[in-house]
Design brief:
This is Alpha/beta fold hydrolase. By secondary structure, the protein is α/β, with parallel strands linked by helices. Helix content is 33%, strand content 20%. The strands form 2 sheets. It has a 9-stranded mixed sheet with strand order 1-11-10-7-6-4-5-3-2. A two-stranded antiparallel ribbon has the order 8-9. β4 (54-59), α1 (70-78) and β5 (81-86) form a beta-alpha-beta unit.
Length: 308
């Protein structure tokens, strides 16, 4: 059953149908955007055919290429929202050279996200900016420079990564990954060759090592990084909507609740959805962004959260 809860304990009702103007087909342009240290990040810019009415920063989950979000980004642009996606440093088209030579951790990725946000705000020219983050993309908000300029945050299938709280299908595999596989593989390869192992994906050494530390701690990243990280979460003031799914094979309800409880400085609305609530057999951790979810999920859940 679908559940909606907010941080002020008022009941709310989810609109059954979406609105929005009818827009012509969007155009997409690929280009490099320089991070603060000059590193080139591969981006995709989705431009509405008509005058934009808002902008969206669409941030990826761990090791998920930006092209996975192409259909959703085009849908946003078709509704009048200038939208940008990108590959994190050392992944996808943002990998230059050998992965073992990439020096980056998750805070590097957050700073890079801030650079993309700055480029988006420059092109948006004062339009309201919405941050839509999938999984990891909803965790990095507090650490991205410029997040205070975002008008609304939407997280999709986002929670902590503490492995003992993971959903049952992932829990045992995650324990094996963090305890037995990652340490020797990083030491041997100098990066994480996840594609060859069929685990997560290829990732820089610093990213995987830091993520392992977070996922091994019951308090996830704030347990590792301390009070500074808590203060960063508390500094976020933009209204936040969390959308999670009961059949998520990775994130449990507990993962989701613990992560979003860290956002103490803002109003939070928690939407938890079962596939049957919208007539779907399955959604899972990745299904929200799949082509064909426009009527069941995007129009129903996202349209009401975007500027009209």
């Amino acid at each position: 059953m679908m559940s909606i809860q907010n941080s002020e304990s008022r009941s709310t009702h989810l609109p059954r149908t979406g609105g929005g103007a009818s827009w012509a087909m969007a155009t997409c342009e690929r280009e490099m955007v320089r991070a603060e240290d000059g590193y080139e990040l591969a981006t995709s810019w989705y431009y509405p055919e008509r005058l934009a009415r808002g902008a969206v920063l669409l941030t990826s989950g761990m090791a998920i290429p930006q092209l996975y979000y192409d259909a959703f980004a085009r849908w946003l642009a078709d509704r009048g929202f200038l939208t940008v996606t990108f590959d994190y440093r050392g992944t996808g088209a943002s990998l230059h050279g050998k992965l073992r030579d990439v020096r980056a951790d998750l805070f590097t990725w957050a700073r890079d996200t801030g650079s993309i946000l700055a480029a988006l705000r420059q092109r948006a020219k004062g339009l309201p900016v919405t941050w839509i983050g999938h999984s990891l993309g909803g965790q990095l908000v507090p650490f991205a420079p410029g997040h205070e300029h975002v008008q609304h945050i939407v997280t999709i299938a986002t929670g902590t990564g503490y492995w003992r709280h993971n959903a049952r299908p992932t829990r045992l595999r995650a324990g094996l990954l963090w305890h037995a596989i990652v340490p020797p593989v990083l030491a041997t390869c100098g990066y994480f060759p996840g594609k060859r192992l069929n685990m997560v994906g290829d990732l820089p050494h610093g990213v995987m090592a830091q993520w392992r530390r977070w996922c091994m701690h019951p308090e996830y990243l704030v347990g590792v990084e301390g009070d500074t990280a808590r203060q960063c979460f508390a500094s976020v003031t933009a209204p936040l909507t969390s959308i999670s799914f009961t059949d998520d094979e990775m994130m449990s309800g507990r993962n989701t609740e613990i992560l979003h409880a860290l956002y103490t400085g803002t109003h939070r609305q928690m939407v938890r959805l079962a596939p049957g609530d919208v007539g779907l057999p399955r959604i899972g951790h990745f299904g929200f962004f799949r082509r064909g979810m426009k009527d069941a999920l995007w129009n129903r859940l996202i349209v009401p959260l975007l500027p009209s």
